[in-house]
Amino acid sequence: MSASATSASDAPVLRRGLITISVMLATIMQVLDTTIANVALPDMVGDLDASQDTINWVLTSYIVAAAIATPVTGWLADRFGRRELFLTCIVGFTATSLMCGMAWSLPSMVGFRLLQGLFGASIVPLSQTFLLDINPKEKHGQAMAMWGAGIMVGPIIGPTLGGWLTETLGWRWVFLVNLPIGIIAFLGCVTSLPAVARRARGFDFFGFAMLSLGVGALQLMLDRGAEVDWFSAVEIWIELGLCLTGFWVFTMHLAMNRDTFIDPKIFADRNFLTGLVFIFIIGIILLASLALLPPMLSKLFNHPTILTGLVMAPRGVGTMISMILVGRLVQLIDARVLVVAGLSLTSLSLYMMSGFSPQMDDHLIIWSGVIQGLGLGLVFVPLSTVAFATLPSNFRTDAASLFSLVRNLGSSIGISMVTVLLTRNTQINHSELSQFVNPFNPNLRALSPQAAQGDPSALSTIDQLVNQQALMISYVNDFKLMMVVTLCAIPLALLLRKPKASAGEAPQVHMD
Question: In sequence order, what DSSP letters do the residues of 70-96 get, joined into one string?
């Protein structure tokens, strides 16, 4: 390292390019693992000697560990150094991916996934911090476009890539695919990442314990709720009580103490606070819609996994196009205008999705996906830029960890919400539609005289049609709900304010 200190934003263009590529490889690797393993669960059951109920702990352990470890990223970065922490996380995540690919039983897999979640938790917030640090303010929009592309496209291609790997190479390659990516990312980062000066911070163990309790209990409740029928189970009530207790005690602790591991001054920044609300909503819309579409295409349209991925791929194309354009537009157009335009396009796509029917082809699904990708990209980049624009640079790592945590919580809540509504509305719709299946209904007699006369096979066919329509109506209701949530978020854009010309200096780093 040279003895002279220079601003991170003064890094040479080639150095910035290498840092960006290396950091984004690590980010995509981590983000992919939030969805890539989902489709491989059925194949894991036999090899790991697990049941359909217990195999879900492969996902739960990763989600809960990552959620608990994310908020402490800022303290760890200050205590051990951002560069050192990031490199450690890449090595740990890659190594635990190898262990997951070699797992021999369910307990070993859950343990390795737990470690994988702990190591991966800091990768996304640190990558955002690095990209903000190494770029001058006028290029923050383009930097966030690159970062947002990895964050948003990763979950979209995850199920498709996971399905292809599982079908062609086996489920273990869902994890082993991280090895070459992790090695390349590590080599790029170790040769290019600048070292940032460390600063001593005491660790607020009580505050961290309370926040971890709240976040962990919430994630467990959301992940386990559907399996145990929600509030009919004592487990969910216990987790809800622990969640409320943890968040309440942490909030009081944050308000009354100065030496907390998250500086409460962060929440005094209106742009950042509004950005947290927005990213929570984006989390709901992005992953909730991704959670709905694959099973809908499989159950109602009989699409195999590969075709489902191809139908959903244009959504990622729309996002990439939007990211490329908005990275430059954010310098010319008020970010609030871009956010409103993005939310409006997202609402339009959800309105189009509310017109889905089992008799249609894939064109409406593809075009609504492209429009939604364009809309979410228009929101994500200016939001990620403006949320940090008025925040002092010394708060960036803490703020980025909170940004990622709130996005992940929004995703978990959104997925649980639409899944619960889908299940319950399907039952309600089936009950209501079944009332019309009777011998006195002329439409039934015209469609199937045998069913009207009580023929069992004909009635079974009619019941399948009723199930199909009930499920489709439930999907449509979920899309309408997400559309309403998106429309309600538009007025929040008025709370954002334009950043001043100088909103905090970039941190000082030592360049090679």
Answer: GGGHHHHHHHH-HHHHHHHHHHHHHHH
List C-alpha distances in Å: 391 to 273, 396, 499. 10, 7, 9
Please give the span between the terminal C-alpha atoms of the chain, in angstroms, as a whole number.
5
Q: Do the beta carbons of residue 385 and residue 140 sit within 8 Å?
A: yes
CA nearest neighbour of 39 among 54, 58, 26: 58
Q: How far apart are CA 484 and CA 490, in angstroms?
A: 10
- Count CA atoms within 13 Å of residue 410 on its CB side: 22
**What are the start-end ranges of the E strands in 194-320?**
195-196
d(CA 274, CA 258): 23
Distances (CA, A) of 287 to 216, 375, 414, 487: 19, 14, 7, 18
DSSP 448-486: -HHHHTT-HHHHHHHHHHHHHHHHHHHHHHHHHHHHHHH
Q: What is the pLDDT of residues 129-175, one digit of tens each?
A: 888 888 787 777 777 777 877 777 777 777 778 878 887 888 889 89
Q: Helix (H, G, I), strand (E, B), or coil: what is residue 503?
A: coil
Backbone angles phi, psi at 247, to 5 degrees: -65, -40
pLDDT in tens, 311-362: 877 887 888 788 778 877 777 788 788 888 888 999 999 999 998 988 888 8
Q: In this structure, what token pair is assigned to residue 206?
A: 């009580």
Sequence-distant (≥ 6) Cβ neighbours of residue 418 within 8 angstroms: 288, 291, 292, 478, 481, 482
Residue 448, CA distances (Å) to 429, 437, 451, 464, 466 in order: 21, 11, 5, 13, 13
What single-letter amino acid sits at 172?
R
Q: pTM above the 0.85 mark?
A: no
Name the fold adopted by 5-203+261-426+472-510. Answer: Growth Hormone; Chain: A; (1.20.1250)
The pair of three-digit structure tokens given for residue 429, joined into one six-digit string: 């719709």
The identity of residue 475, as a single letter, is Y
Q: Please name the residues in contact with 275: beta carbons below 8 A apart, sequence gap of 6 or more.
A: 383, 384, 386, 387, 388, 403, 496
Q: Which helix (H) or strand (E) holds 31?
A: helix 13-32
As a whole number of angstroms, the distance between CA 237 and CA 244 comes to 11
